[in-house]
Amino acid sequence: MTTEIAPQPAQGRTVRHATVLLPEPRGVVPPVTARRMRRALLGYAVAWLLGLLPALLGAGPSLVALGLGVVLPGGGLLATGHPLWALAAAVVFVLSLVVWWFAAPVVLPPLVWLAGAVLAAYTAGAQPVPGWRVAAVAAVAPVLLVAAHLVHRVRHAAQVRTGRALNARLARVQFAVTGPPALATDLPVAESSPEDLARLRYALDLALQPLEEFDGFTHLDQYREAALRYQLNALSYGVAMSQFTRTPAFTGYLAEAQANAITKMLQRRVWGYWARENAWGNLSPRRDPVANRENIMLTGFHGLMVGMFETLNDDRFSRPGGLTYRWSDTEAYAHDFGALAGSIHRNMAGSDYTLFPCEPNWVYSICNTYGLNTLISHDRLHGTRYVPDIIGRLHDSYETEFLRPDGRIVGIRARHLGLSWNFWASASIQLNTAYWLHAGLPEIAHRTWWLLRENQLTLDGGRLALPFSTSNRLDPGDYTLGRDTFGLVAVTMAAREIGDEEYAAAAQATLDERGPVASAHGALRYGEASALTNLYSVLGRFGRPSGLRDLLAHGAPDAWRTGPRLAGAAYPEVLVARAVTDGRALDLTLLPGGEPVRTTLALDRLTPHRTYTTSGARAATVKADADGHALVEVDLGGRLEIRVH
Questions:
Q1: Is the pLDDT of residue 40 over 90?
Q2: Residue 530 to residues 25, 78, 106, 213, 221: CA-CA distances in angstroms?
Q3: Which backbone phi and psi does 247 adopt, to 5 degrees?
Q4: Which pLDDT does position 303 carry in this prediction?
Q5: Do residues 374 and 299 touch, judged by C-beta distance below 8 A?
Q6: What does pTM read for this prediction?
Q7: SS3 string of 509-563?
Q8: Among candidates 40, 94, 26, which has minimal Cα distance to 414?
């Protein structure tokens, strides 16, 4: 029998091999979702019956129209002979649902629905409503619900057949799941190319501006993917990954950039959306963005920024009040990394989905991966046991409630209604979810990537194409349609993380040949892509096999956390292409950011009072002071290798 082996990760570490089949569905509708749907249908059935009572009891036209307006959005208008108004009411109701999804105002759809009913009562006139019209309006919703159920059953059966066919192939596939590296040398540290550094400079220039400034960021709304917080998240993740895979022995401006992004998240203009969403989504006046039952789109995403930063730099954001969200001079919410992780764990443990909502009502599978990754890093850094407590239930939910029988991850569910839709099951959603799941649920991540590679991604002549669909050609950072740049960026992220460099290189080559490229002060970006897409492209560019999994689940090895380190270098005069320590020596590769320059480098974590030999610097030796610090002067005119030992 032929055995297919999934792409292999970097060698020099423990690896276990796993065969991961698609689970057999637990019903036409998953159990938790089925309970939510039954509850919602019961509530609607009560409203439907109450809406019909005026007609059944022979009430006047106004009351009958009001009741039929409760039975169906626009139903009262339709029954009283106003079909165009009824159509308008239905369209406005659908738009209210879109706004509810976009910004979480849960009160909007009921208000629109009720307004249509009131309008029907006001315009009903004196003529009795014909019985056939009452029956027609009453029948619309049941007929649509039955039709939707039948369509779902047909689609579900087709997906089950597809899933079983895929399982016949998956049974011959072994996925390589990496374990912790035994030695620091098991973690590759590559050297950044001039192109890599120019792309990184785009993120650094955004991050290193004053904290109150947001020049170069997209400013559209603070509710969806174009929000400032998501740009700050992506910025921090990309810089952290560059530090981990290229310069783990350098803090300096890389640490400052991440800290700035984390600190900018604390500004009201970034997190203040929650006060509005909680008010119109939960009818609650509470503004605290952390002490609540939802908002993983802040706690999970912000927590992951801190987890990456603390792994590579310091614990300032874990100290009491280290993350204080300020509303005004007199109102602030003092939290820290532990509070974010505790909130995520509490909400996951208290949800029958285990996954919990971003904004009021809406549960996103990808958002919860960020929450899981926050818990993974917090457990490792602070000795908590959050992940073991919830990982079994979380795995079960991803495999049942948020997975179609054909292997596609369900991207979104309405918490109260259980509903989802195919728009949020595109290749871009699958790719991003596979990437962020790899640290905590690697088997699902590997299987998701394999399904995408086998069934949706097309590789031809070293170039890559995604399926043609609206969602795959949406730039979520500015909501423009027509280009698959974001999807290709997601391929570079997922393929590189899983260890499939062929697909990662093809996606990167496709991106690079598309153009145009925008340049500013030595920084490069994709000129027709949003800030969000460009920032995630940095994360993909600096990834490597199991890079995210190593950073979050395994962290930095002892040698990296204790050995000599480059603590300071002038930006942008000095670009650090590589910086690594074996615990005793420090190896650096530097490039000039512009003209040749004589500059001073700051070192720390040296042995106090010890004299070190240097190569590549102006002086042959350097002596550490009582705190283990030293300064080294270099002439930087081109690529320069420096060794301190």
A1: yes
A2: 39, 44, 29, 18, 14
A3: -140, 55
A4: 98
A5: yes
A6: 0.95
A7: HHHHHHCCEEEECCEEEECCCCHHHHHHHHHHHCCCCCHHHHHHHHCCCHHHHHC
A8: 40
The DSSP result for 564-587, as a single string, is -EEEE--TTTEEEEEEEE-SS-EE
Helix, strand, or coil (residue 461): coil
Average pLDDT, the chain: 94
Among 323, 202, 320, 318, residue whose Cα is nearest residue 257: 202
Quote the pLDDT of residue 6.
Answer: 62
Mention every residue, 6+ apart, whose C-beta is less than 8 A from residue 468.
none
Contacts of 166 (CB under 8 A, 6+ apart): 22, 406, 407, 451
Task: Say how many residues make up the chain.
Answer: 645
Which structure tokens are listed for 484? 């698959």
Question: CB of 374 within 8 A of CB of 310?
Answer: no
User: How much is the pLDDT for 562?
Assistant: 95
Under the banding of pLDDT at 50, 70 and 90, the label for residue 514 is confident
H/E/C letters for each residue in 218-254?
Answer: CCCCCCCCCCHHHHHHHHHHHHHHHHHHHCCCECHHH
337/320 Cα distance (integer angstroms): 9
Q: Are 370 and 432 in contact (CB under 8 A)?
A: no
The whole-angstrom separation of Cα 298 and Cα 307 is 14
Using the CB atoms, write b or e for 226-242: b if 16+ within 10 Å.
Answer: bbbbbbbbbbbbbbbbb
CA nearest 532: which of 263, 200, 297, 234?
234
pLDDT in tens, 326-358: 999 999 999 999 999 999 999 999 999 999 999
Q: How far is CA 487 from CA 238, 284, 326, 371, 440, in A?
A: 17, 37, 35, 22, 23
Give me the sign of the Cα torsion angle 617, 619, 623, 627: negative
Short-list 639, 506, 541, 513, CA closest to 195:
541
Residue with tokens 């040296």: 606
Q: What value does the CA radius of gyration of the chain take, rounded to a whole number of Å?
A: 28
Q: Is the peptide bond before 9 cis (omega within 30 degrees of 0)?
A: no
Q: What share of the chain is helix, strand, coil (3-state, %, to 5)?
A: 50, 15, 35
Residue 426 has a pLDDT of 81
Average pLDDT over every residue of 386-403: 97
Residues 413 and 614: their CA atoms lie apart, in Å, by: 58
